[in-house]
């Protein structure tokens, strides 16, 4: 613990405190199973119509502040707006094997001065959920945040009742920090928001766990994992 000249406890010094984080500018982030690229309304429309359109399962939208879009023209309008947005900064997740867009997410609440940034607006197709691609996409984005943008804090927030999202945050290495009560009104209902984060000092260990889990030899011939991605365990 550090103390000032008045014997008051103060926080640790920040190396390069005057240095600002960079703003996201992604052309392509490539992994073994997927790649990420900035959302492009014209290029990704047909694939993302399946993700955002009327055939998208309604249960996928319970904890988002919107519902499936009812026409292709409306999806295109939505994607054009998201493509133009700087914060949130929307990205498309592409299956490397099929070259199909299977979901989107965004970097948001971008604070270059304090070097804090959030991943949010996670919209996955059912084909993406619980796959290696979904995990690798999150790994690629976290790596970009810490190693390219040089941020100190990476956030994940969700409705406190959204147990799958809470489980995903913990599995991916985020630490639960607490719940903000009555934080949001959406869909005419109240939301308590659960907060999670990863710090830059925690990233090296979390990165190693990601890479061990994503390694080809971590999966048997049937595609089942040999070791789980459990950032809270010591195994």
TrEMBL record:
- Supply the source organism for this entry: Paenibacillus oryzae
Write the record's keywords in alphabetical order, separated by commas: Transferase
Query: Would the keyword Nuclease be found if you checked this record's keyword annotation?
Result: no
> What are the N-acetyltransferase domain coordinates in residue numbering?
35-192
Q: Which GO terms describe its molecular function?
A: protein N-terminal-serine acetyltransferase activity; protein-N-terminal-alanine acetyltransferase activity
Name of this protein: Acetyltransferase
Out of the domains of life, which is the source?
Bacteria
Under InterPro entries, the record lists: Acyl_CoA_acyltransferase, GNAT_dom, Ribosomal_N-acetyltransferase
